[in-house]
Design a protein that fits this description.
mainly beta, Immunoglobulin-like, six-stranded mixed β-sheet, globular
Amino acid sequence: MERRTGWSRLSGAQPARWALLAVALVVSGCADDSAPSLDPGLEGTMTVAPTSATPGQEVSLRFPSDSERGIAFSLAQWREGQWDEKYYLTSDGGTSGDYTPTWWTVEDRANRGWQQVLVSGPGPDRVLVPETTSPGEYLLCTANAVDEACALLRVTE
């Protein structure tokens, strides 16, 4: 009786093929820092308008009608093929005047936090794109919701 494992199937000329495939994937990954896409599991969980904004601009966030979330959000920049969290944001809670949209950098997170506020419904919640945000592709997500919601945002000059 012959026993085969996942490794034994790579005998003979197969390791060379796998090595060539691995090198091709690594090289193509390093050379291709293409625009990010939203994880399919997060599609439709949040929309942002406008989808392209400038630093200091207010953007509106909408959610499915049964959505529950807080006023906390995170903003991550696409760099070198991965998301790099840069900012934490506070929304207006879906009602203009109840809370003031604010932000701070990830590095400035000591002694920071959010009020525990439950927001439900479709929004719109409003957040500010931080004034120090560099142009690029960003992922805007809820930071304290049971069910994470995210949307892509492009920041221009």
